[in-house]
Description:
single chain; disordered C terminus
Amino acid sequence: MTDLFRDKMANSARRVSHTLLRWPAWAAYAASAWSLIYGALGIYWTFGGSGFPFGAANDPEGAALSILAGVQVETAAPVIAAMGLVGAVVGLAMAWTWGRGFSRTVLLGIAWSFAAVLLLVVPDARGLLVTALVPIVLIGAPFGWPSENFFDAIPWPVMNQFVLTGGGFLWVAAAVAYQRRSRNACMNCGRSDTDTGWTTPAAAARWGRWATAVAAIVPLVYATTRLAWELGIPLGISEEILRTGQAGGGSGQG
């Protein structure tokens, strides 16, 4: 029985791995489906459905941290519905490798715009804070710490940010796959026989090292500030903000 279960788990793992490795084939379809589903939510909210996650009226505890604090359901929900429909159509066009020249540029512009908004504009500091808590919860869970329910710290407006971030990554994958497919480049590495300049293997090796170093250093800077706040050092913030955060049960702001 144990061997059978182990074999099933191994087969499942192989199927998942194979699916992930084939991401260029399904990324645009996934982005299209995600857009259609979220666009349907926009229609639902447009006609009075509950759960609209933006704006001070619907997110009173954390709207001040969001760039979308002033958003109103009456105006934003129809925009979400329209953008969802546009995304569904654009995703299918990219999956079918439609477009040449100007039309290709338009499709890529829409795809990268969706990715930028979903990853860089909509999320606020709360998503980062919840992500930072995950390893703490995993380490402390066997010891019954923290005593509060982790999911109580993730209200729907914050959970929605993770939904949107996931959509943003799907649009990044869809855009990259379409760029490669539409110029007959390698779907795995993105290189083609006509690569020049910064796209050559030698150039990519140089700037790739710098990009990797930056990606590793930035989280360390953030972690250093949090550690300093835990130790009572107001690194990057005022003494007043630190003490206020400690009095409220936190370690400072952000």
